[in-house]
Amino acid sequence: MTSKLFCALPLSLLMLCAGCGGNDPSGDTYNVTLTAGSLTDGNDSLSETDSSPGDGDGDPGGDGDPSGDGDTGPKLDVIGNDEGMPTAGDAGDGDGCQKVDFLFVIDNSGSMLEEQDNLAASFPSFINSISSTLDAAQDYHIMVIDTDAWVYAGCPFLCGFPLPGVCVGYECGVTQPAQCEDVLGAGVTWPKGANSSNANCNFVNGKRFMTDAEPNLPGAFQCAARVGTDSTDDPERPMEAMAAAVSGQGLAGNCNYDFLRDDAILVVTYITDEDDNAGDGSSGGVDTWRQALIDAKNGDESAIVVLGLFGDDDLPNAQCNGGAETSPRLRSFLDSWGDKGIFGSICAPDYDDFFQTAVDIIDTTCDEFVPPE
User: Fold this and answer.
1) Is the peptide bond before 25 cis (omega within 30 degrees of 0)?
2) Which one, of 99, 70, 53, 111, lies nearest residue 366 by Cα?
3) Most Cβ neighbours (<10 Å): which of 20, 138, 196, 315?
4) Range of the domain at 320
């Protein structure tokens, strides 16, 4: 179960942070105005319609990539491919995918340390299997998001009575959110708080996601995936974060500019030890969460694979035995994808078998994909 050390703070209190200023990991200084409709950096404004690269697009680092394809350096094999293996652009009939966009939604609440470590440890073999199995698809975008808007949202109100193990790394009166850091669904580039990497993951493209051009892709993922256990947002909102991450509109859409590609399949993995409860979790429900992904793929449901790691106490031979909540809403969402929805127990000692099973479904989805003309 998720350990919560204090209750969620009302929105009216959180809004007291409006007008705070802070430093972005890129080195730029931003004066952040927290409102429902905009996020400003003192010069540019991230509005619900601004998606132009280099101007309020969530890429303050300036990646020097005018093509916007996320590749700023020479293409590097993820894990050495066999010589002569087809690469993007070699498919002769125009069918099948040559690109895959991976989205990981990771719960950053207090009980998720072991699960984040397991996920990070399982990624190298997973991406190695993807690279060796998907013949023509060697072009990846990989983004990590967590399940709240800003890990330090409640910390200003604890400055008078700090609690051990809470708001680790937060300096009262000093720490402020950087551009896109306080946006639900924005890609994680610098995990903060207790048990996090607490480092600038410094993706080579300067954006909020990794690509196959990353010199050390497993290492970059492991940096981002350790999102920490210092969430001050209760309850977690994994499905709302997921929907925001793939939206082409709104703040998260601007922050994640260039992540989603029309000619790629989309693989979503979510990992949480609590259900996304109706009434106090993500807005919407199974149908609206499904539609958000389908809309992101321009109506092509066949281009989507969904992987879920959550509690299994509602199944025979459960591994959690009370170590994680049963998750009826998350299971209903996963089941709605039929054979393209793959479940794994979050309480498994490792996730290698889960991901190896997923590789076959991803490969089939890739083979059957018809890229838009």
Assistant:
1) no
2) 99
3) 196
4) 90-368
